Predict the structure.
Amino acid sequence: MSSSAGSSGAGALQASGGDERYRVGTLQYTKASLAMLFGWMVWGSICFDLFEHHGGYTIMNLYLQDNFHVSNLTVNILFNVIPMIMGTIMTPIISFKSDRTRTRWGRRIPYILFTAPFLSLFAAAIGYSDDIIQWCVANVPETSLVNPFTVALGVIAFMTIGYTFFNEFVGCVYYYLLPDVMPRAFIGRYQAVARMVSTASGIAVNLWIIPYQLTHMKAIHVGLAILYFVGFSILCLFVKEGEYPPVEDVTKETKFSDKVRLYFRECFYHPIFILFYVSVACTVLTRGLNPAGVFHLHLGEHQGGQVVGPDELQDAPVTSDGSTYRFDDDGFRHGCDPPGRFGGQNCLASATLSL
């Protein structure tokens, strides 16, 4: 494989000599190319964090409850239970398949790149929920078999499911890209830089985006969808994966039951994996029982970051957190060690506890 074959990452060359600290798999970096890789991965982290936290359906529970008094049960099913059940089913499949994907673009980037247009479209469409509700109320007869608002809620549910479906591909695979392209000696430094940048961008979001999420939902969702599509397209263009060893544990003749046994054997063969699973389950449970944690958006939107008093808490709608906690970014994993270990178990724990 030559370095011009599209398999080197951010200026990396095929591994043939050089400092071992700057090598990962078949990729060999220089200080300059490693700095470029840092820049593109940090850029991707910014786009991903903004899109994941503010570009999907995370605002919809409060929007529907504040404006249409939709019940806690309904929003919990739409924006919590259904996405987590989908994650429980999809995450193991995507993780297992991605580990064994071999293409000219790598084993991670195809899942990110080819789902980006669909994910961006569904995210932007969610921003039009208010227009969809108004259209349904104005055009669906009150005498019809289904109430106009129920029709609108069904459309929003469809967009949520579509967003969740395509987002599962990115939510799983994006975290696996880091140990595939970043030299192990620099993963910790990258995560420190990414965390600092994420904190800075979080401050900016709290100041300039969160206060307007309920009032300017369309503009924010469309803007973040464009940012994600453009940002991740650039990331996939400039960050390239190296070569991977041939897949030997799964062939065309491998039965589905054998694949399932292989997946669970990979996920549970070490006690530390089980401890991670239990710790995440406990974390999800404590988050669900934390009565103050569900009002973080109201802090930014109504109080501008000030402490919410008992009166505000009494009037605020009580909903579950709504986000799926994953422990995909496990820095100790490296190289070709199969990374799809924790996603399915964590989603299963989240869905079980939510139900």
About this structure: The beta strands are 13-14, 23-24, 27-28.
